[in-house]
Design brief:
By secondary structure, the chain is an alpha+beta fold. The protein folds into two domains: 5-55, no CATH class; 61-185, Nucleoside Triphosphate Pyrophosphohydrolase. It contains four helices and ten strands. The chain has helices spanning 30-41, 43-55, 101-113, 169-185, and strands at residues 5-9, 12-16, 22-24, 61-68, 75-80, 88-89, 92-94, 116-127, 133-143, 153-159. Strand 1 and strand 2 form a beta hairpin. Helix 1 packs across helix 2 (43-55).
Length: 186
């Protein structure tokens, strides 16, 4: 079995698996190759540099909601204490550091209404104008029943799509997208 070898020969990279030789003729400046060698020997250096670089990147907040439907085609809404313009809305919450959107949604649903769900698919992602904030909606299937509501909620209720109370624009769009998905599946 022949083993590929990597050589530095006269300023050129030469890669050869035995008797076949391919020459890469682009010269690599010594500063670049030296830096690459240091980073490869001490990978922690690049991790620290990336951490500082990330400080200057955008850090939007992310909110996730679930469009949860039951066997009768009804949609689960919750009435929020702290949402004065549109008290009724889809259940969900804000993503914490180190979480993914699906993980956030599952955590929030257990915290807010004691409900486990299976996330079926993403429905909608939207940037909120004027803010560093992303909203995400997922289509979910309940695994069990709602057990209780958290201190930030007044109550929950299942609504037929034609009986929904006024919702925020994003929640309305998420429900409409879920209904479109159901039409395609039928």
């Amino acid at each position: 079995m022949q083993v590929a070898r990597l050589f530095w020969k006269l300023g050129y990279w030469v890669i050869g698996p035995g008797d076949v030789t391919v020459t890469y003729t682009q010269e690599i400046p010594p500063l670049k190759s030296g830096l690459a060698a240091v980073v490869r020997r001490v990978p922690l250096l690049i991790e620290i540099a990336q951490w500082f670089y990330r400080l200057r990147l955008a850090h939007p907040t992310v909110g996730v909601v679930g469009v949860i439907t039951d066997d009768e085609g009804r949609i689960l809404l919750v009435e929020h204490i702290f949402h004065p313009k549109h008290p009724w809305g889809l259940p969900g919450g804000w993503m914490e550091r180190g979480e993914g959107p699906e993980e956030t949604l599952k955590r929030e649903l257990v915290e807010e209404i004691g409900l486990q769900v299976t996330i079926r698919r993403p429905l909608l992602v939207r940037r909120k104008n004027g803010y560093e904030h992303l909203d995400m909606a997922f289509l979910c299937e309940p695994q069990g029943e709602v057990h209780e509501v958290s201190a930030e909620l007044l109550r929950f209720q299942w609504f037929r799509p034609d009986e929904l109370p006024p919702l925020s624009d994003f929640h309305t769009q998420a429900v409409e997208e879920a209904l479109r998905v159901f039409e395609v599946v039928r």
